[in-house]
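Table 4 source record.
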Amino acid sequence: MEPINVVTSIMTPLDRKNVDTDQIISKEFLKRIERTGFGKYLFYHWRFDSEGKANTDFVLNDSRFEGSQILVADENFGCGSSREHAPWAILDYGFRVVIAPGFADIFYNNCFKNGILPIRLTQNEIDSLLADGQKIPVELTVNLEKQTVTRKDTGAILPFNIDPYSRQMLLNGWDEISLTFQYEDQIAAYEERMAR
């Protein structure tokens, strides 16, 4: 995984509550096992009509947010089934950070395991970001080391908390396998002792 420390980007305001994993990546796109290539299917049934034409009313089709690495959503983001394809699609599309007032637990944990930083802010902070972000592009700087989100337009600094283990994993770009390799010498020594 790529390490995350500071991400500066225009935010994409997804002003919807209870976005479930089937809306994030619909079941008909789950036939592949690779982690890549799912970004083009992110929010597919909201982005495109039944003929495959872009829905111009949907935020991901708004050119103002092209290249955005920060998705801001409303409460209970990532609810529904536990499909790991949901964070795969979000990351493959280009988002490194998802900010919401709350997440479904499994989705929240899957974000860390796949190199996405999920941030919980207060409902008032999210309401302000979503309202302002729909009027004009709002640039945010997310600093994982300092655990802050800074608004460029107002200078407001919004603190957040991430548990120390998950924070270290993202700062170093480690997944559980990478973490295991940190102990490769001790594992080899143990295996050698056990083989005697």
